[in-house]
């Protein structure tokens, strides 16, 4: 029986062996797979090649179409620029990450295009070398805390460990844990070095596809926000009012932290469409937070000896110092032509932007290289017409009664009249020579004007021309008779125009011939010197009742 029992137990054991093997096989397979993967070499990150700065660069400014007639915001220009940088880099073979240092801080990464090697991916590195970046980089590490006693001026240093930098700076010192900037003392952190992840310049990283390696000329093109440009016109009206000398400047503004020395520069006139993808803040908030560490937020206790303390503004400098300060502030506005005149005896307009076609737009290219400095404005001449033929006239728009007269200079933008260049929108300042020198006679704005288009510069309200009107109802009709009296107190004859806008209300019985123009009909008059002219018409109206 013992033998039989043993045999039976052996049979049961034999029957269980396959089941055990089946159960253990997947485990052994998984362990073998893990060990095999561990034995395989890890996929190494691609080598990094750093391009410290571009060799050549081209900056094309685009005007902010939403700014209207307003001035450029010098602190935060509201438009953008197209920047093309050419760099020479030595690439190892294979997949390579190229770090482009010195790109514009307002770069829109998704617009970046790489020529010279095929890109695989790109990344905007926003971690700049700054107070917040250093604190974040050294969280949990040792630094030196330097204190200055405001009473004695004594400086002490001690080791501390950065514990928190989310919204306040907390350190562990030999005396315990403290929120550093809540003490009100003069304190500074000294760091042993800069974390490798931080960059002193804006950086765009792009990883290439597999490539043969060797020296490569790479062109990086991208859109960057924080740029704008504007046109300014300076006109001198001839004594007889029959011509105008016109000089124009391009004002190009950069609100970016990156400078581009010896850049090929141009400006595009006209309105272009932009997608929402290129209107993001491109890390603007992150950069602003990185530049300024919040030192006074969330201190506890909230009521301290400095609660409600008002920081007094610095004393007003004396007049001479104030003038020097204003001069310093204006130093970032550079008139390119004037600087070159001082250097090479050029005339102020020796450097003049050249007009070129860009589809339906116009591009003004500066023919010499110039530096687009960070946080600056620069002016370049782009037009100089000695004599633009036109006419000085006075005008009133007529709704029911004529409006007060306006003074304007009208010309046609064509070569036969002394111009014939595309005119981008901008501000116009008009002068006229007098016995007492050159005098300002008015300012106005100019919309974009193309070739052979009529241009009107409305620049003031005359003092020698007046208009008064008298209105009488027409009996039995829904009309009024308007008599306008125009007086010319000048010792010369003037040309006067009455503009009747087209619309629901209608003007009847206008004497003389009306000239049809877009949106209006025009009646031209000539008023002799020191005389007056009466002009009568009927104006129809609707009082809300049926005829």
Number of DSSP strand runs: 32
Mean pLDDT, rounded to whole units? 75
What is the terminal-to-terminal distance? 131 Å
> Oligomerization state of this entry?
single chain
Unreliable stretches, pLDDT < 50, 5 or more residues?
1-10, 12-24, 37-42, 289-350
Helicity range:
10-25%
Instruction: State Rg.
Output: 38 Å
- What's the shape? elongated
- Provide the structure class: mainly beta
Portion of residues in beta strands equals 35-45%
Tally of helical segments: 5
For the biggest sheet, the summary is:
13 strands, mixed
Can you give a write-up of this model?
The protein is mainly β and 547 residues long. It is 14% helix and 44% strand. The chain contains 5 helices and 32 strands. Strands 2, 3, 5, 13, 14, 15, 16, 17, 18, 19, 20, 23 and 24 form a 13-stranded mixed sheet that branches. The longest helix is centred in the N-terminal third of the chain and has 38 residues, at 2-39. It starts with a helix and ends in a 7-residue tail after the last strand.
């Amino acid at each position: 029986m013992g033998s039989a029992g043993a045999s039976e137990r052996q049979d049961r054991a034999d029957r269980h062996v396959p089941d055990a093997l089946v159960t253990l096989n997947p485990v052994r397979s998984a362990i073998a797979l893990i060990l095999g993967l561990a034995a395989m070499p890890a996929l190494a990150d691609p080598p990094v090649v750093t391009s410290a700065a571009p060799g050549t660069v081209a900056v094309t400014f685009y005007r902010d179409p939403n700014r209207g007639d307003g001035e450029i915001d010098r602190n935060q220009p509201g438009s953008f620029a197209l920047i093309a940088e050419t760099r020479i880099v030595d690439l190892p073979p294979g997949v390579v990450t190229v770090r482009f240092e010195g790109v514009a801080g307002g770069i829109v990464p998704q617009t970046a295009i790489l020529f010279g090697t095929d890109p695989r991916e790109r990344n905007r590195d926003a971690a700049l070398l700054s107070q917040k970046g250093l604190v974040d980089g050294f969280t949990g590490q040792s630094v030196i805390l330097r204190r200055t006693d405001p009473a004695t001026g004594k400086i002490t240093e001690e080791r501390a460990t950065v514990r928190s930098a989310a919204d306040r700076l907390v350190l562990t010192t030999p005396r315990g844990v403290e929120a550093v900037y809540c003490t009100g003392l003069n304190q500074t952190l000294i760091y042993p070095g800069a974390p490798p992840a931080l960059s002193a310049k804006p950086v765009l990283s792009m990883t290439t596809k597999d490539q043969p390696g060797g020296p490569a000329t790479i062109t990086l093109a991208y859109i960057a926000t924080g740029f704008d440009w504007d046109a300014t016109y300076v006109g001198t009206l001839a004594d007889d009012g029959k011509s105008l000398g016109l000089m124009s400047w391009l004002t190009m503004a950069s609100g970016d932290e990156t400078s581009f020395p010896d850049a090929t520069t141009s400006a595009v006139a006209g309105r272009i469409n932009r997608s929402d993808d290129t209107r993001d803040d491109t890390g603007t908030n992150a950069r602003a937070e990185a530049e300024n560490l919040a030192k006074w937020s969330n201190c506890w206790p909230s009521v301290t000896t400095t609660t409600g303390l008002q920081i007094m503004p610095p004393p007003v400098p004396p007049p001479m110092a104030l003038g020097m300060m204003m001069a310093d502030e204006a130093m970032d506005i550079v008139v390119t032509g004037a600087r070159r005149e001082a250097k090479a005896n050029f005339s102020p307009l020796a450097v003049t932007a050249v007009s070129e076609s860009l589809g339906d737009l116009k591009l003004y290219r500066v023919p010499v290289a110039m530096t687009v400095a960070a946080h600056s404005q620069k002016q370049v001449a782009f037009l100089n017409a000695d004599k633009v033929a036109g006419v000085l006239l006075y005008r009133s728009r007529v709704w029911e009664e004529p409006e007060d007269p306006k003074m304007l200079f009208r010309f046609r933008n064509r070569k036969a009249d002394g111009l014939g260049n595309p005119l981008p929108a901008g501000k116009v300042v008009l002068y006229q020579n007098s016995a007492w020198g050159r005098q300002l006679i008015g300012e106005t704005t100019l919309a974009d004007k193309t070739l052979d288009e009529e241009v009107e510069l409305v620049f003031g309200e005359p003092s020698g021309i007046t208009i008064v009107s008298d209105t009488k109802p027409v009996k039995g009709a829904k009309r009024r008779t308007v008599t306008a009296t125009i007086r010319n107190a000048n010792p010369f004859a003037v040309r006067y125009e009455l503009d009747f806008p087209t619309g629901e209300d209608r003007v009847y019985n206008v004497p003389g011939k009306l000239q049809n123009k877009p949106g209006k009909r025009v009646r031209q008059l000539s008023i002799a010197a020191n005389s007056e002219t009466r002009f009568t018409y009927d104006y129809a109206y609707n009082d809300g009742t049926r005829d």
